[in-house]
Amino acid sequence: MLLSEVFRRHRTIYLLAVGHALVALSLAVSVPESILHDMHVGIGYIRYRPWTRAGAPSQAAVTRYTGVIRTWLICLIACTAVVAISFTRIDVPLALHLRDANRFLSPLNEAFGTAIILSAESAVVLALVLARLVRGHISLLAENVAIACLSSICAYGINSHVLKVFFGVPDPIAVMHGAGHAFHLWAGEETSSFPSGHMVLAGAFAGVFMRLYKITIWPLAALLLVAAGLLVAGGWHFLSDVIAGAFLGLSAGMLAGEGRAAHLATLR
To answer: What residue spans of the chain are helical by DSSP H?
Structure first.
């Protein structure tokens, strides 16, 4: 029903494809294999045979993935609680307190606008694709950079075209001019405030590297914290916006990184 409403409002097959992928992924991690039959459809579902002992995942792998999903769900609950507290008690008072600092940070909006970041990521992906076609190969790091850029772009698209429209939270400037700081379900726009598109962009890119290169966790976390602080201090987003955006972006990036790590493991 949700995807049908999205398609009714925004006639694009892109969002349906993304939604279908998310639903399929959710089913894959939540429905028992005895029912799912490895996502086979039609006659393949009937003829499906379980993995042989040699092809079955190890118990350690099953335990690990179960633990990862459990940890993510706990983080989701914690993030939801923090966002709710921030939304109701902290967002507007903090925005009012930082209102005088907005004018000093306003030049950053021109240098780090989402259009510029998306264009840069698209240019990087295009350059790496061309290098792959010309040279026949690119380094492992270059492949991971391309995956991080694509994850960032896709996460931003979902956030802007679905989540922002669904929640419909006015940005701080609108709230300062009298708009209510509240959720207006299905009444939002791509320029709405919640969740932060910049944090989704940055979080998804960083999440890939955090998953693939453990040494980058703390430096990237520090950069994300600085970015979140600038977005709030500059008056572009509320605190709850950047918290939700960071969580969504990191979730998307780490999911992509997990898929990348699983693919690399099969090549060894």
So the answer is: 2-9, 13-30, 33-36, 43-47, 59-85, 91-97, 102-105, 108-111, 114-135, 140-158, 164-167, 172-176, 197-212, 217-233, 239-267
Residue 137's H or E segment, with its range, is none
Cβ atoms within 10 Å of 153's Cβ, excluding its own: 17
Token digits for 89? 């008690």
| Both tokens assigned to 180 | 């209510």
Which of 199, 238, 197 has the alpha carbon at shortest distance from 92?
238
Name 238's Cβ contacts closer than 8 Å, sequence gap at least 6: 86, 87, 91, 92, 94, 95, 169, 172, 181, 193, 194, 232
Distances (CA, A) of 150 to 111, 125, 143, 252: 21, 8, 11, 11
Q: What is the largest CA-CA distance in the chain?
A: 67
Tokens of 215: 């040494």
- What is the C-alpha to C-alpha distance for residues 157 and 208, in angstroms, rounded to an integer? 17
CATH topology of domain 90-267: Vanadium-containing Chloroperoxidase; domain 1 (1.20.144)
Amino acid 218: pLDDT: 95
Segment 179-205, tens digit of pLDDT: 888 988 888 888 899 999 999 999 999
Matching residue, tokens 């240098």? 111
Q: Give yes or no for a contact between 200 and 245, defined as CB atoms under 8 angstroms apart.
A: yes
Cβ(124)–Cβ(149) below 8 Å: yes
Which segments of the chain have a pLDDT < 70? 1-64, 101-111, 267-268
Quick one: three-class SS letters along 157-209? Answer: HHHHHHHHHHHCCCCHHHHHCCCCCCCCCCCCCCCCCCCCHHHHHHHHHHHHH
